[in-house]
Amino acid sequence: MPGQTVVVIGAGPAGLTAAHELVEKSDRTPVVLEMSDHLGGISRTVDYKGYRIDIGGHRFFSKSDRVMDWWLERLPLEAGAHDGLLSYQGKERAVPRGGDVDPERTDHVMLVRRRKSRIYYLGKFFRYPLRLDADTLIKLGLWRVTRIAASYLWARLRPIRPEENLEQFFVNRFGRRLYQTFFKSYTEKVWGVPCEEISATWGRQRIKGLNVGRAVRHALRKLVRRPDDLAQKETETSLIERFLYPKLGPGQMWETVAGEVRAKGGAIHLRHRVVKVRSRGRRIVGVDVRSEMDEEVRTVTGEHFISTMPIRELVEQLEPDAPSEILRIARGLIYRDFVAVGLLLEELEVGKRRREGGPRLVDDNWIYVQEPGVHLGRLQIFNNWSPGMVRDPDKVWLGLEYFCTEGDEVWQLPDDRMIALAEKELAQIGIIDRGKVLDATVVRMPKAYPAYFGSFDQFDTLRSYLDGFENLFLIGRNGMHRYNNQDHSMLTAMAAVGNILSGCTEKASIWAINTEQEYHEHRAAPLPEDGVPGPSPLGPEET
Questions:
Q1: Domains along the sequence of the chain with CATH
Q2: How many CB atoms sit inside 10 A of residue 316's CB?
């Protein structure tokens, strides 16, 4: 029916994609309600004195041509990258929105970046994925490598059945020794609980078809692969080696999308928090929204409602109240939160100088910190994501990532103490000299990662109840309590809008996103290096 209002809760990638699809493909008006003062959710870019922070490290790649096209229609590809684009398209046609864009002359551009990430363990850098070469043997030691190999063979001969928790999942695929060396401590640092308490579903979603045997086969195929496939449909998601990246960080994409939504008649309200979700029978009829500008509460009505808000909050705000069993399950859902510390330095104590007079630097996009005795989980080097992220190219701009739970000791540290902790830990493991820190800032991100423990094992009951509201569509990471990547969140939004426009009230097609075979990647694929994965699939590699 023309002219209807669709209420969209949340202005992250999923919510803004839904709003954009509505204004592009219908005359329905999206009204986007965002509780914070920024766009993009965890995919935003924080600008601190001209130094930009990417909250989590967002590589723009997808096995969906639709998503790749969608991104490049918003931000055109940089000059010189046509071959890769044509390879992913699989057909001859022009770059969307017109052609060669020089990133030296405009900020409105999508860069093509080479991915490099390493593991920092025992005071040494290990290649990601791990290579069974002389460098790894020397750093790990022959005895440790021998035990890893023997453990892997034993795991293949005697797999654990039934496979119920994450530890069992990893041991079955990598062997107990490799799991204990490169998986266990990092994973537990990210999630704050033992691997035995996390559902194996987490591993099946994030790592999918990857294991040591597959890695060996992939290494052999590397010799015959074409190098310029940007979508990399034959490559394990965790091991993508090239990716797209907006010059000014991921938030640039979502600010661009929001501008187009507004220009085409959609409404986006920042600092508007949904405090009540009103239902009548099996339909949602409106939401009460509190404006943080004047504290006034208003009711917003619509014909359809698309929600990306955390399911726990959604259920708690339903009126009439949800059944007690549904409330219990919802309140048992757990989230991990995130603190990022931006550090500006003269140079690192590791790496090499890029040019005469330039700072000492490593080439990594990020480094996974496996060292015991530090809270730090991951280190981003923003210089290597895009030159647009760093105001002064002669400085080093870092992002230190701390995984925590809202209200715990790390989350509650005052900014000055959080910065002091970051400086201390990086110096402790030999990455920086504290005397060379020039400036710093702190960013906190609540509910960054939905967890696969707590009451998650009863999630199907909760999903079934919420899917029963015929005009309510759950999308995105927190909206579905599923660790979706950015492209998966977008695809859920596209599916929801498609259902709304066709009059379809079923939700199975939305929940099928990120479970279909295309995204399980069980087909053989090359690795960027001849090796096995490190810790990144277990935590927030691409958020």
A1: 5-40+252-333+452-512 (3.50.50.60), 117-225+520-538 (no CATH), 335-450 (3.90.660.20)
A2: 14
